[in-house]
Design brief:
Helix content is 21%, strand content 26%. By secondary structure, the protein is α/β, with parallel strands linked by helices. The chain has one domain: Rossmann fold. The strands form 2 sheets. The protein has a 9-stranded mixed beta sheet, with helices on both faces. Helix 2 links the parallel strand 3 and strand 4. The protein is globular, with a radius of gyration of 16 Å. The model has no long low-confidence stretch (mean pLDDT 97).
Length: 225
């Protein structure tokens, strides 16, 4: 499969995701934000980091970059799009995903491994996971507090568009297991067609037991599948 990673000024997880994709045998290309066309892509990744230094609002300036027009076009044509951390924020700024990522509830940057539960494993991003499987994935963000309006929350629940939720090591979805205050412990969502996934945790950091664990591997193998 062919993948493209979009790189902005301030992206700092672009090489991490590139390493993960190449390890999983994707044919990957890095695409600078000023480009006006995309290479042939089965998967587009918007990586984590601090695009444009998070000025104005996280992802706000990146959401207006030249290449984003092509990302939106590809997404609307059915291409798979994965936004991780800042990439999730950018996807909400472009309107490809609904909702917003607000400041963390404690108003502090969080960097730690946290547990998330697989809510929907019947998608191109999650089919190699088991439903309700508990994963340990790293988070590193200042604005990861997902919020949306009641109508969209109902849509997320009714159409099974919630990908992951923060939980404890036993799978409980309580406030103590919620690191940033996200609405209903949400840590990742799909669009209505389920070809776009935005998530705050970093699966690309969990692909090797030598440095973490391999809980992120099956996200990429799901896409390949």
């Amino acid at each position: 499969m062919n993948s493209s990673v979009i790189v902005f000024p301030g992206s700092n997880c672009d090489r991490d995701i590139a390493v993960a994709l190449e390890k999983m045998q994707f044919k990957n290309q890095m695409v600078w934000h000023k480009e006006t066309s995309l290479p042939k892509s089965d998967l587009i990744v918007i990586p984590g980091g601090f695009s444009y230094g998070d000025y104005l609002r996280s992802g706000a300036i990146a959401g207006k970059s030249l290449i984003i027009k092509e990302v939106i076009k590809a997404a609307n044509d059915g291409c798979l799009v994965l936004g991780i951390c800042n990439g999730f924020q950018i996807l909400t700024e472009t309107g490809l995903l609904k909702g917003a990522l607000l400041r963390n509830k404690n108003l502090k940057f969080i960097n730690k491994d946290t547990n998330i539960k697989v809510i929907n494993n019947n998608t191109k991003f999650t089919n190699k996971y088991k439903k309700d499987q508990i994963l340990k994935i790293n988070i590193a963000h200042n604005e990861g507090n997902y919020f949306t309006n009641p109508d969209h929350l109902k849509e997320l629940n009714d159409e099974n568009l919630i990908a992951f939720k923060y939980c404890d090591d036993k799978g409980n979805l309580d406030e103590d297991a919620n690191p940033n205050g996200s609405l209903k412990n949400i840590s990742g969502i799909f669009n209505s067609k389920k070809n776009i996934l935005g998530m705050m945790p970093h699966p690309e950091r969990m692909i090797d037991n030598l440095i973490s664990n391999t809980d992120g591997v099956n996200l990429f193998s799901s896409i390949l599948n």
